[in-house]
Amino acid sequence: MPMEQDLIHLYNLTRVDLIRLMGELGQPAFRAKQIYRHLYVNLTTSFDAMTDLPTALRETLAGRVTFTSLTLRTILTADQGMTRKALFALPDGSPAEAVLMVYPDRATVCVSSQSGCPMACVFCATGKLGHLHDLTAGQIIEQVLWAERTLKEIAADARSRGEKISDHLTNVVYMGMGEPFNNYQEWWTSVERLHDPEGFNFGARNFTVSTVGLIPGIRRLAEESLPINLAISLHAPDDELRSNMMPVNRRYPIKDLIDAVRDYTAQTRRRVSFEYVLLKEKNDLPEQAERLADLLRPAHQAPLLCHVNLIPWNPVPGSPLSRSDRKRVLAFQEVLLQRGVACTVRVERGAEIAAACGQLAGAV
Ligand code: SAH
Q: Most Cβ neighbours (<10 Å): which of 92, 141, 149, 204?
């Protein structure tokens, strides 16, 4: 028997890889197509359920490949089961978390691209873990498929009570643990795989990636053929404060970042969002909102094609920071709106199970 770590992780294989594997096993190519459909259309989780494959092949495969490379450790629920956080463990026990948020008319999963994170933003719980691992494309995909299967259970349950909930995810957001652009290739492979019309068939416009502002990643995304959405974690209107909150700003300061975003919107004609976490008396003053508006709607340039998403800071254990209260949030928003900057306040889920933005740190 091969050791666990020698098994091929199925969700790391492209369609072409699967065909090649079938070739090695002396199998016709259409077997690859069958397996691919099982993985991404039927969401099958074991070879026993692939009853259209010969038993001998199923047995051979069971000795060579594995379905999962993440172990589901715990599921925490909130909002009457409509928010669920899955805590997965990598083979060495490092954490990766995914959060499913179900709404009457849509369902979003927020997935991790790394275990821990190297970016060390001072206000974020994941940053405190440091960088543990880059996730493979397969490990990212597994989180999305967990969410889709869970959603189907929730929808079936609702149906039995005479309620209606969509049984398909409508949004995949790469806003869990980690910095997607710091693991670009594996992250992008997950997008392409999940998008593949022969498989999971997820619409490109329903993916959103969020970055701390790694400029090479922004430029690379602008060249990709799939029109996914881009969100940028900005969080401060000047370099001094931003560098203080986000070490990455020393490498990619605000002006360069805004220039890169401007190029991105010009090239793709897609609107970007800026995330802005509100910290009491640190970055939530009305004059800071004015400076933010100056950046996004400068006097002598066309306004940036963008939208601002304000996120009241979610508490992180042991942090000296504090959350802006509702009044300060609305005052900040008002300044932006007055200046013509489209701006909404993020409605959050899961703070009570440490599943909200910036709270993912592998704690049970
Ligand atoms: N590394 C990427 C992806 C993570 S997305 C990025 O930073 O964009 C998670 C979002 O939640 C980011 O905008 C992040 O800045 C924000 N965030 C981090 N800590 C937070 C906290 N404690 N409360 C609210 N939002 C937080």
A: 141
